[in-house]
Amino acid sequence: MTVEPDEIVKSCVEVLDRILNDDSVPRNIRRVAETIKRTLSDESESLFVRASIGISKLDEVSNDPNMPLHTRPLIWGLASQLERIPVK
């Protein structure tokens, strides 16, 4: 079953919203999540470029030592989802 790239972005934004609304997540990580959410929603860039930027930022933040244990798998899952967006 193939999932449309727009559906992938929509589900990623939902996960980002969960991170943004979690008060146990440090502010710096929530700021990055907000930046990624804005980037994914910015239709002035191609979807692949937006996904690539998001993956890069997720990779940077995934190594933050202050990341709560329950957030790290969400970050990894987001990166995996964004990697599914095809190059066009």
From TrEMBL:
Gene3D superfamilies: Ta0600-like. Pfam families: UPF0147. It comes from the Archaea. InterPro entries: Ta0600-like_sf (IPR023130), UPF0147 (IPR005354). Belongs to the UPF0147 family. This is UPF0147 protein AEth_01603.
